[in-house]
Write a structure and sequence with these properties.
Number of helices: 4
Largest sheet: 5 strands, antiparallel
Order of helices and strands: EHEEHEEHEEHEE
Strand content: 35-45%
């Protein structure tokens, strides 16, 4: 996980993602949002790569004019969250079981119809992964995830 503080200008995201593309490094999660400082944004980029690749990426990111700060985050030194919206098939005879499982994961019901239940779960990515795998048993109709957001612990 890499946390970036960047100038909020058009094209910054394209330049940063292009740098990863040129290095043939796949971005597995990317979030961008305004932050506490005016005219700046915070990006959280998650990649799978070797330590050597990560070091090269860090150096290249620091060379980009619009990048103010680059910080590598580990799950031990950061609070990490992902948001999941999941619509699952919910037959009458399965609804109680689905609702009980969702409650055990802390998922919130957003919508219910005669044939589906839609949940929201904001938590650590691994916990969401487990929730999604359990819900696959019932038949997932739609699945959306926001991408990882992370903030360093003090």
């Amino acid at each position: 996980m890499i946390s970036l503080l960047v100038e909020d200008n058009p094209g910054v995201l394209a330049r940063i993602s292009g740098m990863f593309t040129r290095r043939a490094i796949n971005i597995t999660s990317l979030t961008v949002s305004p932050c506490e400082k005016p005219k700046l944004s915070r990006m959280t980029v998650v990649i799978n790569g070797s330590e050597r690749e990560l070091e090269q990426v860090r150096k290249q990111l620091n060379n980009l004019i619009e990048v103010i700060q680059v910080r590598e985050l580990s799950s031990e030194d950061a609070i990490v969250r992902d948001l999941c919206l999941l619509k699952v098939s919910a037959k009458k005879e399965q609804r109680a079981e689905i609702l009980q499982l969702a409650e055990s994961y802390g998922a919130r019901v957003l919508d219910a119809t005669l044939s589906t239940l839609t949940f929201e779960l904001a938590d650590e990515p691994r916990k969401i992964d487990r929730f999604v795998e359990i819900m696959r048993h019932f038949g997932i109709k739609q699945l959306l995830r926001s991408g990882i957001c992370a903030i360093a612990r003090d």
